[in-house]
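Treating backbone geometry as a discrete language has practical consequences that deserve illustration. The amino acid sequence and the backbone structure tokens for this protein are reproduced below.
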Amino acid sequence: MKHIASDILIIGAGIIGLSIARELQGRHPDLNITIIEKEPDIAAHASGRNSGVIHAGFYYTPDSLKARFTVEGNKLLTDYCLQHNLKINRCGKVVVAKNEKEVEMLYELKKRGDKNGVDLELIDENDLKSIEPNANTCQKALYSPATSTINPREVAGHIANSLNGRVDILLNERFIKREGSFAIKTNKHKIEFKYLINAAGLYADKVAHQFDVGYKYTLLPFKGMYIQYRDNDLIQKHIYPVPNLNNPFLGVHFTKTVDGRVKAGPTAIPALWRENYDGVSNFNVNELIEILFYEARLFLSNAFDFRNLAFEEIKKYYGQHLIKEASRLVKNIDLNKFGSYMETGIRAQLLDKEKMRLVMDFVVEHGENSTHILNAVSPAFTCAFSFSKFIVDEIEKYSSFN
């Protein structure tokens, strides 16, 4: 088996792994960096299959890492797209309420946004008519002008292509196991490193456990699907509902894509294995058993109202249920213009096995000569540049290459 030696080894060529390589190279241009990716292309999973929304950062409590990274990340990613002439639709977003109780939550979101430094306006129904005439709300709405959409695969590809010759991206290179303190085995090579960064997404927990890190956590997959609406003039802004802040999902909404199309979704259906995109593709019986075990425990304990969440999400397998929820957000709509489900994405959601609850924020833990990104949950794409600065700051505290 061929040996490779590298200063830094990054597992995963999604947006987080690529952004960390970019940040490392900017600070330490003489480092040799190797990125391994088990798929034949970069950004093959969550990074390339997400909604493409650049979030503004008003959902998150001010003491959270999400709040810290989203606000800065929005600006950094927006500037990057503008600087490099990458597609970006700076359409903005409105959050609408369906009743007076949800109006109270709009005030809470506005308070969070103000503390997080987000450009955010609380508007009445008349103001909403001029911003997004088709949005349907009760009394008040929130307007976020800084929410945009991009093409995630285009952005990830541009980052990968911008890395110079001291960064090697090895595709079809699957992590198999750790070998000692400073090496791993893949399906093709033995790779030695001075420092390892685990950005393996759906399999970050499995990699971390090989390095005796993160045993209290496991990842649960949730299936996200959108339905296309065949009339680009339905809306001009994203339209979102008031979310349930006790779970990590934002509810069914309308998104204006980077090329002006309209889609409704997503679902957040509990998946049965980690790459359970369509049918029985990538079926893994061990993952099925493990995931059903933890989902059964969540169902029985009803932690964070998981039982109701699961029932509601499973209904969305039937397009008419998702369409009904989306239709409440607008005044006028032709239900016959909804198409079929679009490309499926899988959201990797970290579960704290001790507390039996989904972890809402980023989780990063360090091992021997290694850093493990256990939870890079939505809006990780928005946060990528800001989060990468934080990760490299952390690595510089522990690494031997300084």
User: Anything to note?
Assistant: The CA atoms of residues 222 and 270 lie 5 Å apart. The chain has a mean pLDDT of 94.
